[in-house]
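WARN retry 2 of 3 for item q-0093 after timeout on previous attempt; input resubmitted unchanged.
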Amino acid sequence: MALRSSIARLHRPSTPSLKHKTLTPPWLPNSQARSMATVVPPVMQDLTSRSGPTAMVFMNMGGPSTVADVGPFLSRLFADADLIPLGRLQSYLGPLISRRRTPKIQNQYAAIGGGSPIRKWSEYQSLEMCKLLDARCPESAPHKPYVAFRYADPLTEEMYQRLLDDGFGKSGRAVAFTQYPQYSCSTTGSSLNELWKWRTRLEGKEPEGGGVRWSVIDRWPVHPGLIEAFAKNIEDQLATYLAEVRKDVVLLFSAHSLPMSVVNRGDTYPAEVSATVYAVMQRLGFSNPYRLCWQSQVGPSAWLGAQTQDTVMSYVKKGHTDLVLIPIAFTSDHIETLYELDQEVIHEARKEGGTGVKRAESLNGSQVFIEALADVAAKHLSSGETCSRQMGIRCQGCKSERCLEQKRFFMNTQRDVEEVIR
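OK item q-0093 returned
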């Protein structure tokens, strides 16, 4: 399936033609929501404020913008041992697997429009968030949006060079804002490892002028605005069912799976995804039966289950033909939603009689979600913290020296912070 696309986050190259609307999320006081909704002029480097400008860097996996980009994307993806651990044969097996999978994955990207929409949505979300931040946090304004992808353009090194070209290397402030709400060493951890690597290569260990001053938003699985955005999309889809069957529709939350070797090492991702699901169901008043399942497994090794496709087919065969799939670990559409869920899972379910199997809309251009992003960022900017307390502790079975050094770097950018827990 879509690699099973084990790793793409697909998104289309065009620019969204979405009209900016002001919504007041129920988790924000009215006065605060009004200030966040003010649209401000575009960020300019020569504008000044008490501590601005501030670079807001959206980190994500990325995805190929065109079919021709699929090969390089897969090559980078399968070379990353944080995401797909292949052991000592990584340098041999990674290129071999990527070459063999490229034609199949190219066809899948062609089927969803010729490329991933993740860059389009990331650039839109970051820009709109920065507009809200400029109004809400004038002391750190102007806020300048950047996007750093792990496996596709714009790559981390491209983003970092832009930061330096824009003058942030002289003690400028930058926030690495993960777009994976639930932390995993294979996603956010991998992106931070890459960021730390390029910081060292481009700035050195003791950069002149102080270097970029980094802080990290490393997880936000139960932020009220995130939960509200998911809940509203679920309610919108539930409203398409007849009233007499609506309460019996099964909600299936689907998240990208992880190899069990990563889970057993102590990765926090399964627990944080579960926390998101439970918070969404609380917001919905536990109105419907629900389950959490996992998608996009690849290869013969054991992965976290139950698998999404198996779960859907099992319920359909048991007579549960009204199901809503909810992509709960992604902040926009990608190949896992547009191809794997829409064109594989739902298509196969309907062939077996699952005529009521549908999918909730992804977060994409949701104004509730964008205001949630601004709220997460504003609280981080005012907190004085460089990262969460959770980031300072390693997984129980972690033996990666790169992970240790990365955590030391980000933790030690804060004065008087405790040494990373080994």
